[in-house]
Amino acid sequence: MLNQLDLDRLEHQSTPDPLMSLRARGEDPPEARIPAWVESFRALWRAGDGAAISALLWYLVNVSGEENSRVVDAVIQAEPGIQEAYVTLYDRILKEGEARGIERGEATVLEKQLRLRFGELPEDLRARLAHAKTPELERWAERILSADTLEEVFREP
Predict the structure, then answer these.
(1) Cα–chain-centroid distance for residue 154?
(2) What is the pLDDT of residues 123-152, one digit of tens each?
(3) What are the Cα distances from residue 78, in Å, to 38, 43, 45, 130?
(4) Which of 6, 22, 24, 80 could form a disulfide bond with 55, CB atoms 3.0-4.6 angstroms apart?
(5) Which of 75, 62, 4 has the alpha carbon at shortest distance from 33?
(6) CA–CA separation, 116 vs 54, rounded Å?
(7) Whole-angstrom Cα distance, residue 8 to residue 25?
(8) CB-facing half-sphere around the CA of 127: CA atoms within 13 A
């Protein structure tokens, strides 16, 4: 994910400053910003900076608010090699979304089972379920079968 360190690195690299050129064009209409996006990616491509390309793609897709399909099409047309980085990012986003969806589904089912067995859940346990990862959810789902109390379900190993 693009964080402040990534932004700082992009802003202070030796290649032309992609984020600064894009920020300077921020008031332009979307159509007029496409060349700035293309030039930013081209500069990174020429510099061989795959990590920065991935970070800028992530920024484009998740943060920028641009009409990203038009921008990505223009970038790939200008530098076809960037398509691989885009596909890799897209696959990662899909996998992360799928995993998160599965976790949310597991949490929803477990919360319903807990409510049916033990009654309404305290807010702190509902929040814990909402933020739990698959291993915790699976452990709690197994414990619900033999636990006599909520505390037994959620006890730390």
Answers:
(1) 29
(2) 999 999 999 999 999 999 999 999 999 999
(3) 7, 11, 11, 43
(4) 6
(5) 75
(6) 46
(7) 19
(8) 3
Phi, psi of 153 (to 5 degrees): -65, -45
Per-residue pLDDT of 41-66, as tens digits, reads 888 888 887 888 888 787 777 766 65
Rounded to whole angstroms, the Cα distance separating 76 from 42 reads 10
Do you know the residue count of the chain?
157
Q: Report the candidate in 79, 138, 81, 133 with the shortest Cα–Cα distance to residue 113.
A: 138
Alpha helical stretches, state H, 12-133: 18-24, 30-47, 50-62, 68-78, 82-118, 123-131
Q: How many CA atoms lie within 13 A of 145 on its CB side?
A: 4
Question: Of 53, 51, 69, 52, nearest to 61 (Cα)?
Answer: 69
